[in-house]
Structures are given as structure tokens and as C-alpha cells.
Specification:
β6 (about 145-150) and β7 (about 155) form a beta hairpin. The protein is built from six helices and seven strands; from the N terminus they run βαβαβαβααβαββ. With about 190 residues, the protein is of the alpha/beta class. It has helices spanning about 20-35, 50-60, 75-85, 100, 105-110, 125-135; strands spanning about 1-5, 35-40, 65-70, 90-95, 115, 145-150, 155. The longest helix is centred in the middle third of the chain and has 14 residues, at about 75-85. The chain has a single domain, classed as 3-Layer(aba) Sandwich (Rossmann fold), CATH 3.40.50.280. It has a seven-stranded mixed sheet, sandwiched between helices. The chain binds cobalamin (B12).
């Protein structure tokens, strides 16, 4: 199963103070360790445009998409989710990141995603996708930090600390190569 992780672009003029996206980098490592093929499309990288994101999404070379949502990127996340659904409704659409963690109910109300995670998703995201693939038998309630829709409402798993963060490994630097990001301040005005 192929997974595309996306931080949608919010400004064609370049996004503020860019540094590599550690959140998506760690998630990529967790997914790879569980046998998934992963790619990252980060709007923070140099020369990104909305057109390039749309072209990337239209390639449809992924079975699941994970979108990182900031409060300032809800609209872009909405457009991304809607384009993916119109291209292929079978693609599993998942959201996470600061906005979802900060106001889960609002995020699920604003965004038409199948699943969401609040807080860290290194343990839960691979487990959810393995369950969907039929490789893991577990209940949604057993998936760390998962949020899902049921009977018209939301189910939100409790936040539990990760006991051994060192065991999560390092971010997938090949997918968030610092050379692909603009130098802070020097390339933005
Ligand atoms: C470092 C940092 C930055 C860096 C790097 C950002 C980046 N893209 O990685 C820089 C300086 C570039 C930056 C920029 C911005 N930041 Co900032 N940043 C932080 C900071 C200090 C740490 C983030 C971090 O690296 N955490 C560690 C990584 C491993 O965790 P993570 O990114 O949260 O990801 C984990 C989970 O959130 C989750 N997750 C994340 N994405 C996804 C996606 C999916 C699909 C799933 C399932 C899970 C998931 O799993 C990840 C792994 O566990 C936080 C504050 C904080 N303490 O968290 C603010 C914070 C996230 N930033 C914030 C803001 C507002 C911004 C900007 C909008 C500022 C601006 N005005 O331009 C931009 C937006 C950047 C963007 N759109 O990409 C706010 C977000 C508030 C909100 N409600 O959205 C925060 C919370 C600070 C604050 N309290 O105001 N930021």
C-alpha cells in the first residue's frame, strides 16, 4: 500500500521560515517500518505551487493520503480532500497535525476526512492502515490516538503517552531533505 503525506501550500509566495517537516518525516519512518511505501509533498519546500500540488494529487499513485492541518491551512486541506475524493473516492483520507490536535471536533466538522489522529500518530497510523489492509485484527478503540466517525457522531480515543520515543527512530531525511527547503529569511521578504 502506498501512502502520500501532504502539507498543503498556503502561500504561492513561499511559506514562512521554512524548516524540514519533522512531523511528516517521523510518520514516514513509522510507515516504512511497517512495510508501506511513502512519499511526502511538503508545501514548505522551494518553488511549490498549488498547481504542482494538484498535478501531484492527479497522479493517483497512492492508496491513502495523510494531510497535515494547521488552523491557517484548513481551507487548503479542504480543497485537497475534496479533489482527492473526486479523483478516486476509494482513497483513504486521513488528517492530523496541530489543528486536529487542538480542536478535534471543529476539524472533523470542517473537513470531510475518513479518519483523524490527535497528537502523535507514529503508533496509530500504521496500525490503522494495516487493519484496513486486513493485516491486523484490532478494534478502532485499540488504535493509539485515532478519531473516527460512527453512527453520525465522533469517536475519540484517549491521549496516552508513548513510553519509548527513542524506539520510534529518526525522521526519513531522504523525504524531507533540508536542501529542498528555502533558507529562512534569505529567500522570503
Ligand atoms: C517547529 C515548528 C515550526 C517550524 C516547522 C514546521 C513544520 N512544517 O514542520 C516552522 C518554523 C517552519 C513553523 C511554521 C509554522 N508554524 Co509552527 N511550530 C513548530 C513547533 C514549535 C514544533 C512542531 C514540531 O516540529 N513538532 C514535532 C513534530 C514531530 O510533531 P508534529 O509536527 O506536531 O507532528 C506530529 C503530530 O502532530 C502528528 N501529525 C502531524 N501531521 C500529521 C498528518 C497526519 C496525516 C497525521 C495522521 C498525523 C500528523 O503526527 C506527527 C508525529 O507524531 C510547534 C509547537 C509545538 N510545540 O508543537 C509550532 C506550531 C505547530 N506552529 C504553529 C504555527 C501557527 C505555524 C505557522 C502557521 C506560522 C506562520 N504564521 O506561518 C507556520 C505553518 C507551517 C506549515 N504550514 O507547514 C502553531 C500551530 C497552531 C495551529 N492551531 O495550527 C504551533 C502549535 C505553535 C503555536 N502554539 O502557535 N513551525
Amino acid at each position: 500500500m502506498k501512502v502520500l503525506l501532504v502539507n498543503p501550500i498556503t502561500s504561492e509566495r513561499g511559506m514562512f521560515a521554512a524548516t524540514p517537516n519533522l512531523g511528516l518525516g517521523y510518520l514516514a519512518t513509522a510507515l516504512r517500518r511497517n512495510g508501506f511505501e511513502v512519499n511526502i509533498w511538503d508545501g514548505m519546500k522551494k518553488d511549490m505551487t498549488r498547481k504542482k500540488l494538484d498535478e501531484r494529487l492527479r497522479r493517483l499513485d497512492y492508496h491513502a493520503i495523510g494531510i497535515q492541518v494547521y488552523t491557517c491551512s484548513v481551507e487548503e486541506a479542504r480543497q485537497t480532500l475534496s479533489l482527492v475524493k473526486s479523483l478516486n473516492p476509494e482513497i483513504i483520507r486521513i488528517i492530523g497535525g496541530a489543528h486536529v490536535s487542538g480542536d478535534t471536533e471543529a476539524a472533523m466538522d470542517q473537513l470531510d476526512a475518513d479518519f483523524a489522529f490527535r497528537g502523535e500518530a507514529e503508533l496509530g497510523l500504521p496500525k490503522l492502515l494495516k487493519k484496513i489492509k486486513g493485516e491486523e485484527e484490532c478494534a478502532y478503540t485499540d488504535i493509539h490516538h485515532l478519531i473516527w466517525r460512527e453512527n453520525g457522531g465522533l469517536k475519540i480515543n484517549e491521549l496516552l503517552p508513548i513510553k519509548d520515543v527513542t524506539a520510534l527512530g529518526l525522521p526519513s531525511w531522504d523525504l524531507i531533505n533540508p536542501n529542498e527547503y528555502p533558507m529562512p529569511l534569505s529567500e522570503h521578504s
